[in-house]
Amino acid sequence: MGAVTDIVNFDDWRRMRMWVLAIAIAIAGSASLAALGLIDLSKSIYTGAKVAWLSCLVGGFLFGFG
User: Fold this and answer.
1) Nearest to 14 by CA among 23, 3, 25
2) How far does the chain reach from its first CA to its final CA, in angstroms?
3) How far apart are CA 34 and CA 3, in angstroms?
4) How far is it, in rounded angstroms, from Cα 27 to Cα 38?
5) How far is CA 58 from CA 45, 46, 55, 65, in A?
6) Confidence at residue 19, expressed as pLDDT on a 0 to 100 scale
7) Contact status, residue 16 vs residue 6, Cβ threshold 8 Å
8) What's the confidence (pLDDT) of residue 43?
9) For the segment 4-56, what is each residue's pLDDT rounded down to a tens digit?
10) Which of 32, 53, 54, 63 is the most buried (most CB within 10 A)?
């Protein structure tokens, strides 16, 4: 949020560039490790086909309520 605020209020992109760089390095690193066979990304909770519907509904309700 601070990075977005910096862009809107001060036209300062430094923090956003740091976030984008960190995300790019994480994606490139995990893709490289998966390509080398050192990790199996299909076992990650973030890429699984299982969706926790109750958690999504409760979280959406709480976010909307707040």
Assistant:
1) 3
2) 17
3) 30
4) 15
5) 19, 19, 5, 10
6) 94
7) yes
8) 86
9) 999 999 998 999 999 999 999 999 999 999 999 999 988 887 776 777 889 88
10) 32
